[in-house]
UniProtKB/TrEMBL annotation:
It comes from Solanum tuberosum (Potato). SUPFAM superfamilies: MFS general substrate transporter (SSF103473). Keywords: Membrane, Transmembrane, Transmembrane helix. This is Nitrate transporter. InterPro entries: MFS_trans_sf, POT_fam. One of its GO terms (cellular component) is plasma membrane.
Amino acid sequence: MIATYGLQTNMLIYLMTFYNMSAATATSILGLWAALSNGLAIVGAIVADSYCGRFRAVAFGSISTLIGMIVLWLTTMIPQLTSVSCSHFQHVCNGTTTIQLAVLFSSFGFMSIGAGFVRPCSIIFGADQLENKKNPDNQRRIASYFNWYYVSSGISTMLAVTVIIYIQDRYGWQVGFGIPIILMFLSVLMFQIGSPLYIKVKAKTTENLVIGLFQAAVAAFRKRNNTRLPLTDCDEYYRWPLVSEVLTPSMDFRWLNRACMIEDPERDLNLDGSASNPWNLSSLERVESLKALLRVLPMWSTGFMMSVDMGVFSFSILQTKTMDRHMFPHFEIPAASFTMFLLIALTIWIIFYDRILVPLLSKYTGQPRGLSPVTRMRIGLIVSCMSMALSAITERIRRQKAIEEGHKDDPNALVNMSAMWFVPQYALLGMAEAAHTVGQIEFFYSLLPKSMSSFASAMHAVGSAVSSLIGSIMVSSVDWLSSTGGKTSWLSSNINKGHLDYHFWMLTFLSLLNLLYFLVVCRFYETGNDEISRSPHVADEEECDYRLLPES
């Protein structure tokens, strides 16, 4: 994590400096990179669970990440792999060649593949080493492991955005990209040395949840015109395994019920009672799992805008780079390290909520976890709107001071303004991320059946991928639309000429619309005292845990 986050955080400056990319283009590319990395996490999880096992998945992902880092480091060592940097005062700059971009994007590709296999598998592989159901302290040991895993993740991210970024700014890109390679090499080496000691859980090649959900949808589609099968009150439902707690299908999404209805027992079933063709007949449990997934999709989509807001903070590096970043007279914070204030606020909020607010609120709300997941998501969305509005106000003040000081044509000139003015917006966004993300995943756990508990984390990964893609498209669109007619783009690399404040106001407006959309979505869920009603096939509250929370 130190290696990967240490490379990603400062990447905007690297692309603008050595590939002559505009701020908008570089941000779009980084958004697509993030989308690919998060999207491949689903592929990595499926491959690990159904084919190769978690050990091989983590080993392959670690090596792929190391290869990507080495290729990226070579771009700092071989001048022919980067374009000649140019000044902002030059009217014509040498563009990048196809080979240069191919090498750069191949490094991104290797690291995305690595992230796709390591992120969803490493935490569960660690838990496999401690899992012992015969041990009465098993749950406590596992819970302790996950707590320390996230503590180490937070520390790793903090070191990445402080120490690694400081080295890059102080000693250059060759050293700054070389140290993460050494760390990643040690990671791969230590993981492989421990191989004989690991407990390696075999992949379950006989069953795949994702394929099972597709089979249920296809079976329902194939039987859509079969009017002989009623949508309710069918005599024969297919259940596998034969002993099941689910007796009858739920009443919502009734058009899916035909997928588990037996038309001809001799044709549809094998001698052992299993389905002869799972693409024509799906189990009742699988149909209910598909329904549960459809139920959470509207609420899942309300989190896209939150991640888009997080992604736009790439531009904040350009802002803080032109401001006074001294925390002490002889110590200057690197521009890319201001992300640490987001992480600090996120950590403080989680600790404050868990240790102080929950005991107080549980006495008044009657809920052992204090505020309900829906309430926490609502708070997160509101605070994110406040963060975007504050970002717009702060940027307007910064830009006005830059123009008054005569720096309109010099984006690298230092503005007489402390970068500490940006700390509140980072802190607000950290609080918003902590409140919304944890609440959303707990909400998923409360609605999804136990067999789909891992989908809570998987859906967050897919949501991050979709959000990164949306953010990338949005940045490209705003850059193109605002620069039509020869005008200066809002997202110009010269932020003193551009209008980042307009872009932040647009995001504030979209965040407000998303908040209204969230309130509408909440009305479609059956709620009582802000608690989600559960049908028999839905996981009980005590089954909800935080094993697969994303590493914010």
